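User: Can you predict the 3D structure for this chain?
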Amino acid sequence: MLELLTVLAFFGYIYYLRNYADLRTKAEKEEAALAEGILMFQNQKLDEAYRYFDKRIQDKPKSSIAYLYRGLCKEALGNSQDALQDIQMAVSLDDTFFKIQLELGRLLFENDNFSLALTALNKAVTLGENRHPEAFRWRGQTYLKLHQDEEAWEDFATEKQIAAEQAKNGGLPKVEVKAPFLDRRLIASMTLVLFTSAVVVSAIKNAESVHLPYLVAVFSAISIGFAEPRKGWLLAIMQSLLVLSAYLLFTKAPESSAQKELESFSLYGSIILTFAASFLGGFLKRAFSMK
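Assistant: Here is the predicted structure, written as structure tokens:
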């Protein structure tokens, strides 16, 4: 049974790293995967870019980014109506990506559909988190067309403010600057892991069933993931190693075979649950952050 738990832990860890360490959204991953075609579009190789994204859509018909850039290619080639249809399809596949909402709002504006443009641009402003002055510029122009002058000038002022701040910081918004990996918050979280690891080991040694150690491991790991959604994988590894090392090195082996089996299940089960629950904690933190 221990061999089975070891195999499950190994494959669980691989899945964990594959799906948890990379916290990009689906659209961001697609954008990275389609970088070759995006570069063609940016370099004005429009026919090549169009064929590239058209082929990608045939291969993966649910790729929102492929629809977005095929639409932009169509617009640049003079087919704005088909371009709008492609970008509307992109929105139907993923309405949470900033650039998709921005381009939809811009195209609707240029087609004189100002009410729908405003709806899309409102979403773009929300998704952009005050980092993209162009969203405020397009929404301001839309407000003007809808005779909402006061809101328009507020957006134009915000656009200038964001642009000035980005210019001051070398063209990059402050929020894009990467913080050091080992910061005070991570150090504090690692200190907390020392405590939670001791609690898990204590629960393993004193519990009469596997339920208490599992609950302790789950709640401590959820806290890890919630506190550090991007670095929780490191803390989960740290807690697992600490729990395993402390149990093997600093606790007395049980005398009865029944107690030994109970503690083994509690130990290895807690380690597996640590990874799963820290993923859950990171997911919960991202879910709350999106509200």
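The two ends are 43 Å apart (CA to CA). Residues 257-289 form the longest helix (33 residues).
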